[in-house]
């Protein structure tokens, strides 16, 4: 039986763990060959590649910092060398740090905007050189915070709002090239990064749960299927959309 992404080549940034790892595995399960991008966690990236290949899929791990143009060029050169083209780009790599506005430093701003906003711009610029004439799909991983930011998330939320706007603009700019651009916006999701924020048991976590109609924290595996759908021909008539995977949180 033919799978929905058979013969497609997917690049997933920040795919060594969390939502990115779940996306990489979901795309592979639908038949795509997957490039597992990572910036520093080679061990986890290799583990994801091993998991995919043991299940009969194709995957490679490629180190690159998406905020660095030279790294991004090298990433896509490797994709070209191994697979020949790109059909699907998932911009998942991101940095999130929360705190009061008084605590934001120039370094915080530069790190979050360079990774969360400049990173997708750089990867899209390179991917455009490798999409086939038939086009492809770009999926940006945003956050419900980009539309409905809570306290202490001002810097992070603003980067996601920028990514949402980028999606809409590029969906219109790239439509004539048959490249669809959409956003998936997770809500409160149980990832390594989320745990590192130290919100467990805090009033912030309680507020997040209270704002989630389904009343619980999501799982990366509950975000990934939407990305696989948007990457497939089932979503051929969908572009410029932002779809929340958030348990009803807005």
Automatic annotation (TrEMBL):
Protein's organism: Xanthocytophaga agilis
Record-linked CDD domains: SDR_c
Enzyme Commission number: 1.-.-.-
Protein name, per record: SDR family oxidoreductase
GO molecular function terms noted in the UniProt entry: oxidoreductase activity
Family named by the database record: Belongs to the short-chain dehydrogenases/reductases (SDR) family.
Gene3D superfamilies hit by this protein: NAD(P)-binding Rossmann-like Domain
Nucleotidyltransferase keyword on record: no
Pfam family, one: adh_short_C2
InterPro entries from the UniProt entry: KR_dom (IPR057326), NAD(P)-bd_dom_sf (IPR036291), Sc_DH/Rdtase_CS (IPR020904), SDR (IPR050259), SDR_fam (IPR002347)
One GO term of the biological process aspect: monocarboxylic acid metabolic process
């Amino acid at each position: 039986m033919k799978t929905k992404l058979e013969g497609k080549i997917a690049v997933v940034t920040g795919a060594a763990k969390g939502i990115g790892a779940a996306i990489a595995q979901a795309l592979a399960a639908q038949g795509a060959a997957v490039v597992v991008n990572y910036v520093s966690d080679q061990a986890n990236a290799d583990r994801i590649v091993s998991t995919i290949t043991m299940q009969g899929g194709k995957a490679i791990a490629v180190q690159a910092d998406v905020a660095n143009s030279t790294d991004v060029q090298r990433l896509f050169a490797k994709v070209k060398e191994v697979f020949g083209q790109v059909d699907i780009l998932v911009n998942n790599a991101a940095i999130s740090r929360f705190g009061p506005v008084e605590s934001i430093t120039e370094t915080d701003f530069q790190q979050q905007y360079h990774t969360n906003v400049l990173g997708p711009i750089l990867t899209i610029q390179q991917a455009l050189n490798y999409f086939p004439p038939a086009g492809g799909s770009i999926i940006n991983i945003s956050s419900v915070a980009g539309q409905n930011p809570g306290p202490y998330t001002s810097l992070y939320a603003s980067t996601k709002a920028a990514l949402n706007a980028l999606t809409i603009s590029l969906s219109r700019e790239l439509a004539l090239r048959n490249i669809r651009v959409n956003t998936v916006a997770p809500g409160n999701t149980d990832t390594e990064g989320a745990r590192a924020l130290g919100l467990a048991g805090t009033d912030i976590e309680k507020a997040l749960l209270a704002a989630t109609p389904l009343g619980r924290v999501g799982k990366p595996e509950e975000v990934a299927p939407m990305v696989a759908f948007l990457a497939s021909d089932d979503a051929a008539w969908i572009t410029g959309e932002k779809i929340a995977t958030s348990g009803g949180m807005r």
